[in-house]
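In the laboratory, one determines a bound structure by crystallizing the protein with its ligand and collecting diffraction data. In a computational setting the workflow is compressed into a single prediction: the sequence and the ligand go in, and a structural description comes out. We illustrate the idea with hypoxanthine.
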Amino acid sequence: MKYAIVGGTGVYGGFSSSCEKCIKTPYGEVFVYLIEEEGASFVFLPRHGKTHNKPPHLVNYRGNIWALKELGVSKVLTTAAVGSMTEKFKIGDLVLINDFIDMTKNRPSTFFEGENGVAHVSMQEPYCQGMRLILQKKSNEKNINIAGEGIYVCTEGPRFETSAEIRFYHQIGGHVVGMTSVPEVVLAKEAGLCYGAVGIVTNWCTGMVVEEASATDILNTVNEKKRR
Ligand code: HPA
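The predicted complex, in structure-token form:
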């Protein structure tokens, strides 16, 4: 199959005709759904596992991307719950991610372990521009509002950020914060996949408003958005 969707928090599929499969990879087994719907066939991969039991810092990023490659996928669309650090993106907005700042600390983040010499993948365009154009066009056709493009800061999690960290991330150019796009996008690039990411704004980042976001707020906002 050529296309895949990687579903983040709150996006678990719900497709009518699907078949479940476990793909063996050098990084362990990966669970996917193979979907045939309205004449389209694609892979759906729940990023956090079938039962949403893998927190962001323990997601099997290498296994997930390997499994997609194994299935012949060449284009991957992903979703990610994000917090907003800017007035430009409000709760419930959809953001096309166009770059990232990596603040993760402790994740296996490459397939290149030196067996075939030293390799460095380009990060000139980590998120596929062609896919952003298609997403923008399709959402216009379907009257789905996309709030704009933004830079994703990826933190290690699973804790949320401090107010000081958010001020810093905003100052260095970030717009939204999440815990999963890195190393996923990097591995996809190493594997030669075209990779796109839609951020679903679930909360204001720490320090932006007085009340804090809870995990339930995040899930409620994604569920609300998904209905569209
Ligand atoms: N910070 C980090 N990750 C997130 C957030 C946040 O505020 N919201 C959703 N994922």
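Helices lie at 61-70, 129-141, 163-171, 181-190, 215-226. Keep in mind that any predicted model is a hypothesis to be tested, not a measurement.
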